[in-house]
């Protein structure tokens, strides 16, 4: 069976399973008290809502993976890591773990697939060729041995991706929708690079996210919780490593970053603001893109339309860079196809500039100031 057909079937199965299983996880959430109550100023919902939808996503991913992925060491480690990261998220949904405990749990979960070979041994950089991260010798330090820099970098990158997706999960349907778009784009790219296992994994991740989205679209009847957002970030990080970064394609290094531009920028902006105002980077606030949109009067659905659209534009740019034949293997550019790529690039830049304008990220200090506690803009009286 062609890998593309397997990917489609895996996505369909995961989507149907997630759709059917969410009501069961809702009952479990209500039974054990995993309920998100709108008693926080950051909350965008009005009624208590179950938050264990991530368990339905995990179950659907697990079943589809067992059927459609090769049963090798990498697959086994990925699924065990997925179970671990889901468990960490579930504990946080029920008990509210501290930042240190969550980071430790995320790291342990990520180390499992990395130790099984889901790692970047080398990558190709334009003008520099293929680079090998190498290792650092720890002789003289307790324990001795050496640290493989490729493994270390992979762990850091996947843990970062887990937190990027977790941080955007603040409005109904945002994280799931972004993961649908990103998963589809990563699946297409991975399959085109003959990274079939990664392509199938990306497809079933997109399918599970879409199945959940039926329940999570505003007004949401359930939330995926940290069990879901952590899992989806973990899977997208693994797919990025397996499907693009572990290839010799020059542009492959940048494709996952382009596809995931929106959540990465959102996280980067929020972290920068927290550092600027001397607040711990793990402390929640109202500086995310979706909070800023609420501040200027957007409904949740309008917020999703803007952020989904931005994500789609960036995914389209990544796909164009992969498939449009603007250059040959010797670095010679075709004028017509280069103009096509330029058009995609201009569209992505225009969308980004427009959203920066809408979100007032670069609003002039002379006319307003940001409240460091709420993240909202306050107009300054003219002098």
Molecular structure report:
By secondary structure, the chain is mainly α. Helix content is 63%, strand content 6%. Helix 6 (174-192) packs antiparallel against helix 7 and helix 12 runs antiparallel to helix 13. It starts with a helix and ends with a strand. Mean pLDDT is 85; it is low at 364-369 and 377-383.
List the helices and strands and how they pair.
Elements: H1 3-32, E1 35-36, E2 49-50, H2 53-68, H3 73-95, H4 99-115, E3 123-125, E4 129-131, E5 135-137, E6 146-148, H5 149-168, H6 174-192, H7 196-216, H8 225-245, H9 255-259, H10 261-276, H11 289-295, H12 300-323, H13 335-358, E7 368-370, E8 377-379
Antiparallel strand pairs: 1-2, 3-4, 5-6, 7-8
Helix pairs in contact: 1-2, 1-7, 2-3, 2-7, 2-8, 3-4, 3-8, 4-5, 5-8, 5-10, 6-7, 6-8, 6-12, 7-8, 12-13
